[in-house]
Automatic annotation (TrEMBL):
TM region positions: 28-54, 74-94
Keyword vocabulary terms for this entry: Membrane, Transmembrane, Transmembrane helix
Pfam families xref list: PgaD
Record organism: Stenotrophomonas chelatiphaga
Protein's recorded name: Hemin storage protein
GO BP annotations listed: cell adhesion involved in single-species biofilm formation
Domain of life: Bacteria
Length: 164
């Protein structure tokens, strides 16, 4: 075997069909992946803490939690009022838009492209363009210049819904 030529043997490190692995093995590797991502985020914690302190996080912590548990009465009253006001504004805006656009089509309808134009753009015959327009799933047969010359319509399998 030539040393410069890459081997075409199966590389077991690459998973080609992960659904064929046992469920226990997939689950175990999922937990390993989550653990390593958690460790990665843990390593970023000092940088996030530094950024937080630089933008005022330390001052906010001191003002809110380390000030001998003092509560400002204005904040106790203002925060719930602001919360209710924001929720009311959002609901009013949504209702206004629902009333404004009810029963109206906001999108302009698309103009259908003529079959001869489709055939010309595909490089196909008019008859093939007519066949394509009426089919749901097809396999196109192409010539050497990548122009469609024929088609085979595929039958779509419809599975009955499971009841129960």
């Amino acid at each position: 075997m030539n040393a410069n030529k890459p081997s075409r043997r199966f590389d077991s490190r690459l998973i080609q069909k992960p659904r064929q692995q046992p469920r226990l093995q997939r689950t175990a590797w999922g937990f390993v992946t989550i653990a390593f991502w958690a460790f990665y985020f843990y390593l970023w914690a000092p940088v996030l803490t530094l950024i937080s302190w630089l933008v005022g996080g330390r001052l906010a912590w001191l003002q809110l939690y380390e000030r001998k548990q003092q509560l400002d009465p204005f904040i106790v009253i203002a925060l719930p009022v602001l919360l209710i006001g924001c929720a009311a504004l959002l609901i009013l805006w949504a209702e206004y838009n629902r009333y404004r656009f009810a029963g109206k089509e906001r999108r302009t309808p698309r103009v259908d492209v003529a079959l001869p134009e489709i055939a010309r753009d595909l490089g196909a015959s008019d008859a093939l363009a007519r066949q394509l327009s009426g089919a749901k799933a097809v396999t196109l047969h192409m010539d050497d210049d990548a122009r469609p010359v024929g088609m085979t319509e595929q039958v779509l399998m419809v599975r009955p819904l499971a009841v129960g």
